[in-house]
Amino acid sequence: MDEIGRVVSVGDRIARVYGLNEIQAGEIVEFASGVKGIALNLENENVGIVVFGSDTAIKEGDLVKLTGSIVDVPVGKAMLGRVVNGLGVPIDGRGALSDHERRRVEVKAPGIIERKSVHEPMQTGLKAVDSLVPIGRGQQELIIGDRQIGKTAIAIDTILNQKQLNSMATSESETLYCVYVAIGQKRSTVAQLVQILSEANALEYSILVAATASDPAPLQFLAPYSGCAMGEYFRDNGMYALIIYDDLSK
What we know:
With 250 residues, the protein is α+β, with helices and mostly antiparallel strands. It has helices at 127-132, 151-167, 187-199, 217-236; strands spanning 4-11, 14-18, 27-31, 36-42, 47-51, 63-70, 72-75, 83-84, 101-104, 176-183, 206-211, 240-246. It is found in: Mitochondrion inner membrane.
């Protein structure tokens, strides 16, 4: 089994690698410098590897080895109250995650036959939304508008309002857990959000996935998939989850 390849060219955080004949789509590889990447473009002659981090330490001719693992992220209740990056690595300075599972970021979505129809409302706590454009559990909703009109405020208020709604839940299956995915935002903005949720005791049922503007583009690309995998854990265990992507235009 060929597990070692060599870098043919590198630039713009994309490395072309020759010799990885057994590589899988989405597999994590490790360069000689210790930098990791993900295989996204499989061709006959070489493989396109998206580099996590700076590619300045990667040179032509460097060795590349397979890890045998597809991109996965930690999931579970141990994630609640934590801030993680696009790979699920904690960035809040509170140490490693406690007991948790791991789940692949890309899995086949349930078919239409397996899904229930949207029949139950997801209360946002905002009268204008709940009365005029109610959102159902299992539904996708686009919040669109010009800059600085309060799109993010709607999302944050919805998370905060779940505090009261969750307090009235009689069982765990009625609790709504929130996953907020910040894509391409400033670190200061994410820090402010963490403070707001912390002061309102809303972090206890929330997970923050932050791929900020200073993070490499591959991590920003993976963040929505990672957040979705974390939310799917609650879905697959008989619970509810609200996932907010802010925003997908970055």
